[in-house]
Amino acid sequence: MEDSNRRRRASRHTVTIQDIADRAGVSTATVSRTLANPEFVSVKSRVRVLRAVTETGYTPNVAARNLRARRSMKILVVVPNLANPFFAEVLRGIDDELAGAGYDMIIGNLDNLAEREARYVKLAMSGQVDGVLNLTGRVPKGDGRSMAELGLPMAGICAIVPGQNSPHVVVNDRAVSVSVAEHLLGLGHRRFGYISGPAGNINEIERHAGFLDGLRAAGIDGKAVVRWPGAFNLGSGIAAARDFLRRGDRPTAVYAASDEMAIAFMKTLLTAGLEVPGDVSIVGFDGIEFAELVEPTLTTVRQPRHNLGRMGARALLDEIAGTGSGARIIEMPATLIVGDSTAPPRAERPSRAPAKTAVPSEATGGEKRR
Amino acid sequence: MEDSNRRRRASRHTVTIQDIADRAGVSTATVSRTLANPEFVSVKSRVRVLRAVTETGYTPNVAARNLRARRSMKILVVVPNLANPFFAEVLRGIDDELAGAGYDMIIGNLDNLAEREARYVKLAMSGQVDGVLNLTGRVPKGDGRSMAELGLPMAGICAIVPGQNSPHVVVNDRAVSVSVAEHLLGLGHRRFGYISGPAGNINEIERHAGFLDGLRAAGIDGKAVVRWPGAFNLGSGIAAARDFLRRGDRPTAVYAASDEMAIAFMKTLLTAGLEVPGDVSIVGFDGIEFAELVEPTLTTVRQPRHNLGRMGARALLDEIAGTGSGARIIEMPATLIVGDSTAPPRAERPSRAPAKTAVPSEATGGEKRR
DNA sequence: CCCTAAAATGTAATCGATTACAAACTGGTC
DNA sequence: GACCAGTTTGTAATCGATTACATTTTAGGG
């Protein structure tokens, strides 16, 4: 009976280092050394230990090892919305880099809900991860505690969180948004709309500011730009389109702060019988793969998604290793990709540039798709 | 100097249960009890402990707790391809369910590369997760060891892995693929193409078999169906389209085993100047959000993505709790959603059904989009 | 055969919690 | 004041590894 009990518990993860030690007739220390530093172990014990290991199928309990070593070999990745294909690709980049260093990813998906942050602050507090990669553009907090005050190595991707003493890997949202404005102005547009990200979001603020900066340089008042609230998701694009259709004074060009919003906006207009780019020109942001697959293909700002992830992960690994330099900003290039969703407005003549031509800016040169 | 050393190490996660015990003038046992079972602790010690906890900001080290409890409160989710929006949504469902039970997700992304399986077999072996959710339709293996022989609680989502003694949450790929065939036959199509999933993939096999079954019932030989190899991704759709364009004997209707392939296939044909559904009707599989956003909207098989995730996670939690029933199959409904990408072939007259009408089958009734 | 340095091994502390068990304390009753 | 039952608390083992330090073994030289 006692034996059957033991066997039941054995079903999971029973062979321990002690079992191997007994089997091989050595101490646990020798077993551990054989596995970690075989050069310090005599050939004789080495083979005995190794045989015991293969015979039993022993695998060290990593949880125990990590407790001893005060590390977990796990990274918490806090992501605003897992369903957004932009982030999915960034995650792939992160994972590629982490895998090389032996780290695994725990995904902290917020689903765009700030109240979910607390769960991951708790996770980070309790010593279950060695570092945090933050893709949210804000400092996650909860239970009165902020993730910043944990003293855990962190790195930010996609957005610079002000006042954070940690590296950030970003694109220059503002500068490339100026290029967007210049591109649309160059096509001859004069009445603009903007579909925003969530209020307070840093990327949103920068993209909006850059767009208005660009327009202002051409003498267009920011107040004249129609602004639809959004949350980077498909629903926001649809809602913006519904309002657009109700209006008398329709903009001829709309900049959406994400591709998902741009695509949903465009589709809703097309379904309503409008033409793109004939009636409206549309520009997105992110450069997700589907931007090239919609009809017409979307003009968008392409971010180096995979590399944002890789570089962010690398920066975090440096912080963990202690070789990082704390706060610093790594800027990756973003590129305006001109698709078929932008053209001169129907009534007017193009003022400078012909349709479908990239407008380079000092920050990021435009580039023809393909 | 000793003190400065202590302080340096303190930077991360220093305050331990012993510190609290000292501060409150009680033993570690009392601290632990205060936090877990306060009813067994006198009010006097309780307040002293609690005060010490708030003063120091103590958080229990979960790694240590888990070592003692022989669990990790983490689930490994093995996913074929994180960038596929279908899986992203399943993951959200999984996370919603796991969160309620206090579990966190470690993502095992294979990027469609079988050689990456070994990494996660190792992870699962080493006692770092309490269970595995497998979305891959096969048993991950590596280093000569298969994930099945680990004795870890497992559950499969999306595909039934033969011979596995674990629950599986799936849709009936085969039955709904018969409906796809019936829908296309009903529109009058007689020449068909099929873009497949990866060779050997179970979903692929079932979808292909169901499609051919449906065609065979109408007297169409499976050998007459053009079959393009694919891997569920965008590239496969493009490749298939390139071959399609080269052919003389073009099918009039193409069934793609995933939406991504269908969308890429469609876009490539449109770009080449063909009309959809005028020249070719196209059907996808999965029901990702972008299927509704492409032009024309895609006819596709909608899977209950979020619920597949939820139910799979729930089944796994049952297995972990010991209340599961081992092998069993939970079938969720899949629905053929008729979009604008299917219509009667141009030359022929429709034989039975008019265009854009759902063809119900005994397995899954068709349903008009919206 | 002894001595010494180098090599190999073992002992036991440690990581930070939980918990069985024993011990100490409390209050009430006679 | 003794006794008992019920509370409360502390001691120490435990989870499964790693590793500093001590100890033993080995090899080689004289």
How would you describe this structure to a colleague?
The structure is a homodimer of 370-residue chains. Chain A has helices at residues 2-10, 17-24, 28-36, 43-56, 62-69, 85-100, 117-125, 173-187, 202-217, 234-246, 259-271, 305-321, and strands spanning 74-79, 104-109, 131-134, 141-142, 145-146, 154-157, 167-171, 192-195, 226-228, 253-256, 281-286, 299-302, 328-332, 335-338, 367-368. The first copy, chain A, has twelve helices and 15 strands. Chain A is elongated, with a radius of gyration of 27 Å. The longest helix of chain A has 17 residues, at 305-321. The first copy, chain A, is an alpha/beta fold. In chain A, the strands form three sheets. Chain A has a seven-stranded mixed beta sheet with strand order 9-8-10-11-12-14-15, sandwiched between helices. Chain A folds into three domains: 17-68, lambda repressor-like DNA-binding domains (434 Repressor (Amino-terminal Domain)); 72-171 and 307-332, Response regulator (Rossmann fold), CATH 3.40.50; 173-303, 3-Layer(aba) Sandwich (Rossmann fold), CATH 3.40.50. At the A-B interface, helix 5, helix 6, strand 2, helix 7 and helix 11 of A face helix 5, helix 6, strand 2, helix 7 and helix 11 of B. Chain A binds a DNA duplex (30 and 30 nucleotides) through residues 16-18, 26-30, 32-33, 36, 40-42, 45, 60-70, 127.
